[in-house]
Design brief:
The chain has about 90 residues and is α+β, with helices and mostly antiparallel strands. It has one domain: 2-Layer Sandwich (Enolase-like, domain 1). It has three helices and three strands, in the order E-E-E-H-H-H. The chain has a three-stranded antiparallel sheet with strand order 1-2-3, with helices on one face. A hairpin with a 7-residue loop joins strand 2 and strand 3.
Length: about 90
């Protein structure tokens, strides 16, 4: 999971990019979920909303390493963790 987070000086989100890799044939960037944060402060509730929306928008592959259902669950967890880490680092 990769996150790019740029905040304005007042702490509101200026730009957010969230991309998951290795769960589909190509990395998935879902613009509609990224726009949920624009102009808002990233709170725990908003981070959860973004992570859940991102996971709901992905159709992951199933293979020997994990089913599509399992990967969809993990996407939400990893997205939430990555967003919280990016917020802490900003």
């Amino acid at each position: 999971m990769a996150v790019v987070l740029e905040n304005e000086s007042d702490g509101t989100c200026k730009n957010l990019r969230l991309v998951a890799e290795t769960i589909t044939k190509i990395p998935q960037k879902i613009i509609t979920t990224e726009t949920l944060a624009h102009g808002k402060r990233l709170t725990d509730d908003l981070i959860t909303e973004i992570a859940e929306a991102y996971a709901a928008s992905i159709e992951p592959l199933s293979d020997l390493r994990g089913s599509g259902w399992y990967r969809k669950q993990i996407i939400g967890v990893l997205a939430r963790r990555a967003l919280k880490q990016a917020l802490a680092d900003s």
